[in-house]
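Long-time lurker, finally posting.

We've been working with GntR family transcriptional regulator (Pseudomonas rhizosphaerae) and I want a structural starting point before designing mutants. I don't trust myself to interpret raw outputs, so I'm hoping someone here can both generate the structure tokens and explain anything notable. Sequence follows.
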Amino acid sequence: MTLYMNLAQLLSQRIEQGLYRPGDRLPSVRALSIEHGVSLSTVQQAYRQLEDHGLAAPRPKSGYFVPTARELPALPAVGRPMQRPVDISQWDQVVELMRAAPRDDVVQLGRGMPDVSSPTLRPLLRELARLSRHQAMPGLYYDSLHGTQALREQIARLLVDAGCQLSIGELVVTTGCHEALSASVRAICEPGDIVAVDSPSFFGAMQTLKGLGMKALEIPTDPLTGISLQALELALEQWPIKAIQLTPNCNNPLGYVMPEARKRALLTLAQRFDVAIIEDDVYGDLAFSYPRPRTIKSFDEDGRVLLCSSFSKTLAPGLRIGFVAPGRYLERVLHMKYIGTGSTATQPQLAIAEFIKGGHYEPHLRRMRTQYQRSRDLMIDWVTRYFPAGTRCSRPQGGFMLWVELPEGFDTLKLNRLLLDQGVQIAVGSIFSASGKYRNCLRMNFASKPSPEIEAAVRTVGSCAQQLLMENPHPDADL
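Top reply, 14 upvotes:
Generated this for you. Predicted structure of GntR family transcriptional regulator:
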């Protein structure tokens, strides 16, 4: 990433986090040049990029200012989940979302689907085709339970950017990140055990806990800094928690990146109470900042962190290729994988390995990060414009998910039913809670290239929400 893009991202983060408010004067070109040791032209290029994103406006002889018209919605409130372990519910709502097959007449804002139309994926498609034509048919054979050596070598190289120094023997290729999470949970926990999770939390991980007969203890989570360490410490003191499961980088659904100091403090807590950490980093490579944020695993010295990820969000979910670095739990994870799926499909592993080795992965990531960041800014602007007054939304620092909070007592289940009749689907907030909280919240996907159709779909969500509020102007009265 170029110097001006790094600087532009730093300034945009400060604006979005409220360090510079609408109407504030931004640092001068000369001051930034001295502070960051870059040329005046580099700073000017950074400001031009901020102008393109509507984050900075020049004033003659005065410098750059945050536009006064840019009134971002307030951040979502920190949730107040139940202060005890609970049996996980919401399966019916998850099935309803996952059952939704792609349809031309429905704009799908609810699924965790990246944009797979980018031309930067063409080398991957060519490699898949080449393997299909290869006379030796390498993709049709079983490979190691660990995964192909070629792919594990490339994953180990990629993880250096996340701060991890891992050998290929410490990696296990899985059938998507979902299997990585599932095998990790089964390697550590037994039915009836308690797992602490961030709240709101990825519904797939919680449904895994449900299916394995475990309980979730939801920990309040800040939309900018992540899981509350104070609340987690109290929970660890009070309950026999077996593991902590969370997504600290480009969180799903809140989009935050946990500050590095808090990651270290979280690991210290886990060491003190001798619990494992299951870290979901599936969106980590899509962080808008550079270098990409470090994982908690990168600080792990005693093997208690199980790092789970995949290529489902960075490349394509249909490849079904993920991986886990299970630390001290390697043998248990391998056993769980063996009794689950056995070895992972060989052909997509070989194709992805060649795609990365050929130098195609990083250019693809750069293109997608730029697209997703622009789409995020537009989606937030559309929410500001089309949703009811008082709507709150997240400030994603990576990935392609936006978390939206409507007034307390609002029912997004009703909203989703109304939207389906108009050709739009969202992800309802209640599936991101073990106990069905966040019913007044929803998640929307902004991965697709901005288009009039996407804007119209977001406008429809906002107008339908307004309609329901008019029918019930005091939704909290239902509570």
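Before you design anything, note these points.
The first strand starts at residue 57 and ends at 59.
The first helix runs from residue 3 to 16.
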